[in-house]
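dumping this here so i dont lose it
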């Protein structure tokens, strides 16, 4: 193809349009990533998990609780009271330790309290300090530290 016969206007539009297209696509990707990234977790200390611990997030009161006797390899119940909520998930991790995939979807009972039976693995190093991360409607994230019995 002869370069002399090319239309200089097409080359200008291509030279201007391609960088603009790249900027637009990058902005869209970053916007979508920011929209779908989970919120930062709010730490919720809970000295008596069986009684439940309550926090206020905006105009919403949220109470989270766990059974009294928490042991690895034995099922226990997690419950969340969060009126007006559609979806609650809880995941369990140890700080600086990979304990596998521990994600549970809590289901509402007849009173609207979200519940799930949970079984955690035993840590071969003997550690018992867990963090339960509760996601509520993908808009609120709470981190609740707790310990299991031996």
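and the seq i came up w/
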């Amino acid at each position: 193809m002869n370069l002399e016969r090319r239309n200089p206007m097409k080359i200008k539009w291509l030279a201007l349009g391609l960088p603009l297209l790249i900027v637009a696509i990058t902005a869209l990707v970053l916007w979508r990533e920011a929209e779908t990234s989970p919120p930062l977790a709010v730490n919720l200390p809970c000295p008596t998990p069986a009684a439940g611990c309550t926090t206020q997030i905006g105009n919403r009161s949220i109470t989270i609780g766990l059974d009294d006797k928490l042991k690895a390899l034995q099922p226990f119940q997690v419950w969340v009271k969060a009126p007006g909520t559609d979806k609650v998930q809880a995941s369990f991790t140890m700080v600086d330790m990979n304990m596998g995939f521990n994600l549970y979807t809590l289901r509402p009972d007849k009173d609207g309290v979200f519940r799930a039976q949970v079984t955690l693995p035993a840590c071969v190093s003997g550690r018992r300090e867990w963090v339960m991360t509760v996601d509520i409607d993908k808009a609120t994230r709470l981190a609740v530290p707790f310990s299991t019995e031996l």
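The longest strand covers residues 129-136.
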